Each structure stands twice: as structure tokens, then as C-alpha cells.
Amino acid sequence: MQINLKHQIQGSEDGMRLDQLLTSFAAIISRAQAQRLLKSGNVLLNGKPELSPSRKVRTGQEISLTIPPPETTEILAEKGELDILYEDEHLIVINKAARVVVHPSVGHASGTLVNFILHHCQDLSGIGGVLRPGIVHRIDKDTSGVLVVAKTDEAHLHLSNQFKQHSVKRQYQALVWGVPQKGHGVVKAYLGRHPVRRKDISIIENDDSEERETKKGKYAVTHWRVLKRFEFSALLACRLETGRTHQIRVHLTSIGHPLIGDPQYGKSPLKKLADVSAELRIIITNFHRQALHAEILGFEHPVSGEWLECKAPFPDDFKKLLKAIQHD
What pLDDT, on a 0 to 100 scale, did the predictor assign at position 207? Predict the structure, then answer.
């Protein structure tokens, strides 16, 4: 179904980048989608096609937006294990296993969560595009836990808007190096691509401003609290206000408590492992992923309006690591 929208620029929107403004619309799920619509000539500014994502808009200008019907999904449905926490005709909530990629991408054409879900329910919303049907949000390949996937376009739009408004409850549990002195805290910092290591995310600027994004990066907020303290580590609960790429991993590293097992942001554990038992040393060394689990996801059901909250238990490898640390 094609979507046609008109919007007049308000005073509060004056000076915004065009792609940033478009991303605030409920019908557009990501900045990448907004930029694709611009480049394809589907955005008119005062009646004329505007192709530049960085164009600054001014009060009183009118935007005409056309969102074409989604392309036919050509992803292969594959049989795979799914841990389903909730399902109806509108959406499905999955407890994703670690080391499973969420959707097909370069280097991961098959064996993804989307491949498995398509085999299970045959159809998903098309708003995410050809390679991302149904995907409202993502969690890292090596992070386990709760993920919601939309089956219909209506559900996708409604859920995406909740994520944009930060009204979704997202709580993770993390095993980190070191024991925080305080019982709780909050990290507020802009996140952006590392200037040299382009696959890494880094702190761009520490700031108390609540702008969603700037040229330098995207504003991100993580609330953390200590659940359990151990001799050399701690179990934290982390609640996200925002959902940026690698947010928890980078934020906790920035306060001196990187995730155990994190190959990308965790500090070398060699010195930390010197004083632990041989058994625990082996378990930690063989834990080849970040010790991060998406424990709780809560949101308003896109059709019934009821609050739906799903909780995923720890996977076996996380339980084994936690038990070993507790008893060392």
C-alpha cells in the first residue's frame, strides 16, 4: 500500500536537516529509509523534488512525501529453532539465542532470525525493506534476549513509533569487569562511529543536552544499577532510554566497567584473571561473546492497546558463567 503524506514545517522544526525531520514521522522507521526516499525523488519540498538529506528546512515550507509499496521479499524461509515468548496475528516476540544474526546482510544471507521466522509464519511486514521484513529493532548478534518482530505494516508502524518516543521498556542484564562503588548511575553521552576503527562506536561528546542527534553523533542514555557484587566483577541491570548501536557496551566501558567477554570493547582480562581459580579462568576464556542479555521488553500492543511485557531467562552459557563467578 502506497502512503502519501503532507506536512508543514513548524517553528520548532526550523533549521532541522530534512532527513532528520523525516525520521521523526511515524511512517518512516529509520534515517536510512528517509535518505532512500529522498534519493529516489519521493520527497517534495514546496512542490519540487528535494534530493539532499542535509537540506535545512524552514518554517512554513511544505513537505509532500510518497512512500511506495514495499518490494517483494525474496528471503529464503529456513527451518530453525525459535524460542517464542508471545505470538498473535499482529506480532511475534522471540528470545533470540546468542550468535544468531537478526536479519540478512552482507555475509549473512541465510541462517538469520528472519529466515527462521519466515518459515514459521510465512509473512512479515514489508516496511523494513527487502532484507529486513518485520524488523522493528535489533540486538547484536552475540547478545541474547527479547526481540519483537511485526507481522503486519500496521503493527510495524505503531511499534516503531513507540521505539522513537522511547516509551518501550528495555532492560538488560550485564556481567562486567570491576565492581562499581555506587549502587546505581546513569550514562549520558553522544555515540558515533570511531574516526579510525569504523566498525567501532565511540563516545563523541559527554553532554547533558537532550538533543536526539547532532552532526557529531546520537544522544544516548543508559541507566544502570548493581544487582550483585562479586570480588572482581558485578551483575548490572541496564535500562535503555535510547537504543543506539552498541550503546550498553560502549557506555559501560566509558565508566570503567566493560562487559566480560566483549571482544570489541572489553579490556584485556589477563591481569584480572591472574587471581581467579583455574576453573573460572577456563570458563571466562571460553566465553566468546559479550556477557549481555536482553532480559525484559515491554510495550503497548499495537492493536489492543494493552501493555505487553515479556521476559527471557538467561541462556545456558550466561548461567554457567554467572554461577562460576558466584562460587569462585
Answer: 47
C-alpha cell at 37: 526516499
Task: Name the catalytic one among 19, 140, 142, 153.
Answer: 140
Half-sphere exposure in the Cβ direction for 32 (13 Å, CA): 4
3-class SS of residue 22: helix
- Same domain for 230 and 129: no
Under DSSP, the state recorded for 60 is T
Name the residue among 148, 133, 113 with its Cα closest to residue 296. Answer: 148
Does residue 263 contact residue 257 with C-beta atoms inside 8 Å? no
pLDDT of residue 205: 62
- The dihedrals phi and psi of 169, each to the nearest 5 degrees, come to -85, 120
Query: CA dist 55 to 8, 63, 140, Å?
Result: 15, 12, 32
Local structure of 171: helix, strand or coil: strand
Ranges of residues in the chain with a pLDDT under 70 are 1, 70-74, 106-107, 127-132, 198, 205-216, 267-272
Q: How far apart are CA 183 and CA 189, in angstroms?
A: 20
Range of the domain at 118: 84-165
| Strand duo 307-311 + 169-177: pairing | unpaired
Residue 76 lies in a domain: no
Q: Which residue has the cell 529453532?
A: 81
Shared-domain flag, residues 155 and 193: no
| Amino acid making up residue 11 | G
**CA-CA-CA-CA dihedral for 45, 50, 56, 62, to nearest 10:** 10
Half-sphere exposure of 271 (CA within 13 A, CB side): 5
In the chain, beta strands by DSSP E: 3-8, 43-45, 48-49, 62-67, 84-87, 91-96, 144-150, 169-177, 184-193, 201-206, 218-229, 233-240, 292-300, 307-311
Distance of CA 91 to the CA centre of its chain: 18
140 carries an active-site annotation: yes
**pLDDT value of position 268:** 58
